[in-house]
Amino acid sequence: MKRFFMILLLFMAGVNWSMSYGQIVPEPKDFHFLSGDKYALKSVSVDREKVFQNPDEYQLLIRKGEAVISGNLVWAKNTLAQLQDEDGKVPEAEIHDWASYPFRGFMHDTGRNYQPVSLLKETLDLMSFYKLNYFHWHLTDYPAWRIECGIFPQLNDPQYQREGRDEGKFYTYDEIREVIAYAREHGITVVPEIDMPGHSTFFKNAFGFAMDSEEARKVLEQCLDEFFSEIPKSDCPYFHIGSDEVWIEDPQGFMQWLENVVKKYDRHPIAWDPGLPASEGVVRQIWNEAAGSNAAASAKGGKYLDSFVGYLNYYDPMLFTSRCFLHTAAAQAVPDTTKALGGILCLWNDVRVDNKENIALHNGMINGMMAYAERFWNGGNAGEVENENLPPGPLTEAGSRLAHFEEKMTMHRDRFHKGKMRWVANSQIEWRVQIDDKEPVIAYGGAVDLDALCLSKHINIGDTAVAMAQTIIKVERDMDIEAWVGFCVPARSNRNGYGIGEQGQWEGGCQCFVNGKEILPLQPWQEPGKYDYHFNTWGKPEEEEPFTDEQLYWMRQPVQIHLNEGGNRVEIKTPKTYKGLRWGFAFIPMMSSPDGTVREVDGIRYTGG
């Protein structure tokens, strides 16, 4: 009630609440306006007498354009930057804020697809802006070892690495130190990962023996000695040892040996879970998304990190953004850091990437990171939901909070990420979905996960099925809009999916109609009928075929749609034709600007068909 009257007071005073407090991501825990006035930012000074036990804690006091910050200065400055309007003005306000979890990370896989240092710095800038404080740097994987190795230069030799995967490219120790120093300036600690003993085809190619063998242990110990000699504990107190997705004859023995080596250099080891068995002294990074497994895994001994929210590359970016926001951080309704340190958001590109600039856009990195930062800074969830892959109804607590967060994201997209964020608010769209001859059910959101919908609504289907979805778009006048239309989006770590449609058709024979008129792709396909793979492509030749923009609906030019005053019926037909298909559809209305940026459509409402 107190907050309601504060908002009402500010509205009467002429303050644009949504452009001040409402635009800060993640949302501060304690925020007060001191007046309804705004001033040009004149100065920023530091109060060094205030000391906080929580290293993420900070305070920000702004009076008549003069800001005083204390505590975590990086986070305070980034909050101040978000508070400024486009004219450089800031409100009079007082903020006291802190993180619910001490470990809020982001992971890039540079073992499969090398990224230049300049691109990594852009990621660090983004992380810092949203108060993510650990950069998990996955430095080795099947194709290559990306760390300079003086003692065994064959690890950097392109002849032992996967062809076409940035052969011979690695980070020198000077570059690694450069990234670490840059991260530190931005409030971020680097967590290097050497995945052992799995994901190591390059290692066997270079030495002729597997990474779990006795000979390999001698090699690895020398490599780790070199790494730890070059990179001191003060730079990287945590060290990730991998250990996932591999079968070896002596898992306990290998892990105990590896833990002892890492601890000898006084580093805190982190390992994947599921993975080889680790002691309670190892921080477990839980990645299994199976229903119920996350809570069970978090209940085991030792400290843990939550990566069971899922991977950026695995989902439709529209869906994953809401999934992150709806997720229950660390499987805890109320944050308790006794065992739960926080989480790490991961971005894997198993499929080869040609243009590394596309990694962020093809995976919705900015919007996903924004929602993840919100969830793990404040903990808990947005309210109970049936399934994190299904946006809740707008009248529910979680639905209302999601809609409010989408407003924040829209502001950030237009203010800070113009042209770099292919996303529009979409959670309010209501669908009436009928699967085969089953009773119709209601679903929400511009991207609908039909597999999750069937699971949630207890709809049993076989290997094949057909979904018919309808929504009514209501507008107060005739207007022309645009829409992204797409079906059954494949994970960027696996090409299992319909690929590109035949010329003049959508992928998989799917269809879209507006007021009875079929809506077809706007432009001819450049590669019609290609990438139609009904199998997992890991380790297969198809994995070396990069994704292009036309394969991902949010990267394509939207279709043109005319809406009549009143109600307009949108109908979607999405067949499922084989077991294992990532079954779903997307219909996301928007407006486009000449520079290619996208925005929401004003004056539009939805009801189920």
Overall structural domain count: 3
* Morphology call: globular
For the biggest sheet, the summary is: 8 strands, parallel
Q: Going by CATH, what is the homologous superfamily of the largest domain?
A: Glycosidases
Strand neighbour order, sheet with most strands: 10-7-6-15-14-13-12-11
Computed structural class: alpha/beta
Q: Stretches where pLDDT falls below 50 for ≥5 residues?
A: 1-20
* Helix count, DSSP H or I runs of 4 or more residues: 13
Q: What distance separates the N and C termini? A: 37 Å
CATH class of the largest domain: Alpha Beta
Please name the CATH architecture of the largest domain: Alpha-Beta Barrel
Mean pLDDT: 94
Classify the fold: give the CATH topology of the largest domain.
TIM Barrel
Strand content: 15-25%
Structure write-up:
The structure is a single chain. The protein is α/β, with parallel strands linked by helices. It has 3 domains: 2-97, 2-Layer Sandwich (Chitobiase, domain 2), CATH 3.30.379.10; 103-378, TIM Barrel (Alpha-Beta Barrel), CATH 3.20.20; 429-608, Jelly Rolls (Sandwich). Helix content is 24%, strand content 25%. It has 13 helices and 27 strands. The protein has helices at 2-12, 73-83, 117-129, 173-185, 201-207, 214-230, 251-264, 293-298, 317-326, 358-362, 365-378, 397-416, 450-456, and strands spanning 30-40, 43-46, 58-63, 66-71, 89-97, 103-109, 134-138, 140-141, 144-145, 189-193, 238-240, 268-273, 283-286, 304-306, 340-347, 430-435, 441-444, 447-449, 465-475, 479-487, 511-514, 517-518, 559-563, 566-576, 584-592, 598-599, 604-608. An 8-stranded parallel sheet has the order 10-7-6-15-14-13-12-11. Strands 16, 17, 19, 21, 22, 24 and 27 form a 7-stranded antiparallel sheet that branches. A 5-stranded mixed sheet has the order 1-5-3-4-2, covered by helices on one side. Helix 8 (293-298) links the parallel strand 13 (283-286) and strand 14 (304-306). Helix 3 runs parallel beside helix 4 (173-185). The radius of gyration is 25 Å and the shape is globular. Residues 1-20 have low confidence and may be disordered.
